[in-house]
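Complex 341.
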Amino acid sequence: MIIDCHGHFTTAPKALEIWRQRQIAGLTAPELAPSVSDLQISDDALCEAIEGNQLRLMRERGADLTIFSPRASFMAHHIGNFETSATWAAICNLLCHRVSELFPDHFVGAAMLPQSPGVDTRSCVAELERCVLEYGFVGVNLNPDPSGGHWTSPPLSDPYWFPLYEKMVELDVPAMIHVSTSCNACFHTTGAHYLNADTTAFMQVLTSDLFQRFPTLKFVIPHGGGAVPYHWGRFRGLAQELKLPPLQEHLLNNVFFDTCVYHQPGIDLLTHVIPVRNVLFASEMIGAVRGIDPETGHYYDDTRRYIDQAALSAEERHLIYEGNARRIYTRLDARLKARGL
Ligand SMILES: [Zn+2]
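Predicted structure with zinc ion bound:
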């Protein structure tokens, strides 16, 4: 079985984007603000959006199941206030839930949180609980920078985040550390801000005792871990200077990396440097990089090809494709087992 731990609903019907634009317009002109019931998307429209896009590509590329969350760049937690984010997150999560109900063999949800800069993270707990307990979601996306590129929140090791971690631990759901759109002109959203955030989050937890405090807390760092695998020696050396335990012991029971790296040498490096037990298959499809690589003739985000061609044993490949995801996303494993898988 091939589990893709990182997919977003980037192809939602246009009505969603139009509703969001009205919500944003309503922040300055309240008479324009839409109600939740103004958004009407039929099951047929959802099926069409999935069948012709994500599901078609999953079938072509041989992926079975995608952990599916709302479009990351549209989370835009910096817009409006908590109420704005709460309404928007609820709408986006419900759509992913409906997709998972329409295609239960192929999609399972991961939640977007109603984060808002400076707002107590306790405010996000209710939506997380709803998504996990009512919708059957198996993970959550946690934005370490809800300001959208200005980094106004404390680091992930700060008690600011602990109410969320306590709930994640209680529910046993891992967080993918995932920023949203950049509203800082210095940082391109998917080319810089995403990768910066992956690297930044890793260093934040490296310089902390977060996982001593929360031994069962699990973070998936997407996009291959940003700069982390490439600079693994630097991180090991910094940890050593800080008299921290070796990274394997200090972080690798809790931190995992996905395979959203869009070329063979990147995947070769990732799987060589990072223990295979810490690498999860993912494509972030349909996402940031949608073109065909002229050097290979294949889509950049067809990441399965790179895993198939990497120097890995069958057992290692199985861990990356299925075993690690089932070990880390325990609720997913339970769901699959309940269906005899
Ligand atoms: Zn993503």
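The two ends are 9 Å apart (CA to CA).
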